[in-house]
Amino acid sequence: MAYKVLVVDDSVFFRRRIKKILELDPELTVIGEAKNGQEAVVQAKLLQPDVITMDIEMPVMDGLTAVKHILAWRQVPIIMFSSLTGEGAQATLDALEAGASDFLPKRFEDIATDRLEAVQLLQSRVKGLCKVRFGYRPVPSSNGPKAILFNKPSGPLAKFLMGGSGQGAPRRSASNRIKISSGKHYQCLAIGTSTGGPVALQTILTQLPADFPYPIFVVQHMPGTFTRAFAERLNAVSNITVKEAQHDEVVQNGVAYLAPGGRQMMIIGRPQRARFRIYDEPLSSSIMYKPSVDLTFNSLANVYAGDVLALILTGMGADGEVGSQSLKNRGAKIWAQDELSSVVYGMPQAVVLAGIAEREFSIEDFSGGIKNEMLSQ
Fold first, then answer.
1. Catalytic residue check, 319
2. Which of 55, 167, 236, 376 has the most Cβ atoms closer than 10 angstroms to its Cβ?
């Protein structure tokens, strides 16, 4: 009755702790362990897990190389465990670019003490990738857990999203065409995303022209040590300038600003003289993420009113729904990533089901839609 997990880490202690934490949830069972990437490749083929947790730094074969080998054989969700160092951030971004689905910071104290927040986070991320991305649930059988399958998807991403088998829950793709030009006046572009966001953001930002005339505000759920490395990577491959936002910095046109991980980013002032307020905000029942898409989008509504095009991309949860509603109430346009191209259709689905999103786009079509809508004025 449980999802099958393969745990990969060169530390016996971490493997045991992760196994214990996961199996506190009756929907999860650890069916195998591996102490290096080479063993992980063998175990993945032998056991066919529903999800893999993967350390990055290991002997014999590291996690990044293992990810490439495993995904070349079968598309399975892989969650990377990364150290909170600059080198760890770069390696994690490499793994995400290679096809890993998600990542979590590797904090010894959280794993060692079974800290409640860390326990719930790991369990929810593992289950979320199984339930949302692959759209199946485990049912009992005489040979152990297996998946109950629904309809086959269609489209170019079907094999990728359905683990290479072509089977799984149907995933909805955007039916509307890329062309759009409402004639609306804009002053900025805003983007909110989480799981699957690094690759999605790179797909969009690298297609924008160097003379893009508006500021771009990006909120990606990430730890603080990751966002600077991520901004530098995006900047290196994009025509526009991409940087991590700094406190009291004046907003410039043609620059994409990434919210610093582990902190909140708000925009204050007037449209032509806006600046950033970067601060620490304690998490509460209404603010669950640092950075929070809702907080940033709410601040944009106060500064730019309805002159905003806001995108909600792939990610777990519903961060961005409240902020998107605030923007829409002021007259802004909200677009969502479609289900077929989302790694996790949580955040986009929230704004679609709430009736906030005006259109849905495949991730490959967003840049064309942005250029047609914002550069045709």
1. yes
2. 55
Domains, the chain:
3-161 (3.40.50.2300), 188-374 (3.40.50.180)
* Whether 208 contacts 106, CB under 8 Å: no
* Longest Cα–Cα distance in the chain: 66
DSSP bridge pairs for 361: 337
The catalytic residue among 319, 338, 341, 342 is 319
**CB atoms near residue 274 (< 10 Å):** 21
* pTM of the predicted model over 0.90: no
Active-site residue identified among 194, 299, 324, 342? 194
Is 221 among the catalytic positions?
Answer: yes
State CA 195 to chain mean position distance: 2
Strand 188-193, strand 216-220: pairing: parallel
Q: In one letter, which amino acid is 296?
A: T
**Would you give per-residue pLDDT tens digits along the chain (377 residues)?**
689 999 999 999 999 999 999 999 999 999 999 999 999 999 999 999 999 999 999 999 999 999 999 999 988 999 998 876 667 788 888 998 898 988 888 875 666 555 777 788 888 889 888 775 455 333 333 333 332 222 233 333 333 333 333 344 455 665 555 556 667 899 999 999 998 899 999 999 999 999 999 999 999 998 888 899 999 999 999 999 999 999 999 999 999 999 999 999 999 999 999 999 999 876 666 677 899 999 999 999 999 999 999 999 999 889 999 999 999 999 999 999 999 888 888 999 999 999 999 999 999 999 999 999 998 76
